[in-house]
Amino acid sequence: MIHILKRNHRIFLVYFLFILILLIGVRFLLGKELNVFFTLMSGIVLFMYTIGALLMSEQYEEKHHGYAILSALPVNNLEITGAKFLLPLVSSFTLTLSLILLFSTFAAPAPDMVLVRSYFLLAASTGLLAAGLMYIGIFGIGYTKFVVVVLSLTTALGLVPMLVMRRNRGRMDEVIENLLAGIRGMDWLVLLPLLLLAYLGLMLLALQIRAHRDA
């Protein structure tokens, strides 16, 4: 497993450092007051970091026939799959914690900071679950075919916000307030263990898919 982590950790680390340095720089260009747009974009970046680093890592594996090389090494499917799932988990958790600490330097009411922390945890959790599903897709149909599927789905999902806005025209303020209240009220002491169990379940499913393909 250590060999696999060494093969893939550089991409996650480089993206992590670039994003963290960029966000720290932007934060200290802002004033003391909490910036809503910066908060929103930071959560999106947190979500995209896990997915982007994963895709770049798997693109590297595809280009250099990484899985063929791994099959010739004394490692089993559990070690390969475990290492693949461990990197997004650790890096996403670390970036989330870094963002929470960074945003604690803003002056804001306690309820707003609760909302910010919950928003970041939601973004990280969604990105992590997406990463697990992506590994299942990559192991199942291969990187190239999976990217085609992802691009098609992304195009389709891009229509969802417009449909929601059109359907709720005239009451978007109410929709946004309800959404913020829902995020603020999330009980992460309960949700985080459930997230880890779901992620573990995705890893076990990915392990079964790899074993089936290698059989």
Task: Please explain how this structure is put together.
The protein has one domain (2-211). The chain is built from nine helices and no strands. The protein is mainly alpha-helical and 215 residues long. The two termini are 21 Å apart.
* H-E string: HHHHHHHHH
Counted up, domains total: 1
Helix content: over 70%
| Secondary-structure class | mainly alpha
The global form is globular
The overall pLDDT average reads 84
Biggest sheet descriptor: none
Number of strands: 0
Unreliable parts: none
Please outline what is shown here.
This protein has 215 residues and is mainly α. The chain is 85% helix and 0% strand.
Task: Present the secondary structure layout.
Blueprint: H1 2-27, H2 36-63, H3 66-71, H4 77-103, H5 110-141, H6 143-157, H7 160-167, H8 172-184, H9 188-214
Descriptive terms for the model:
single chain
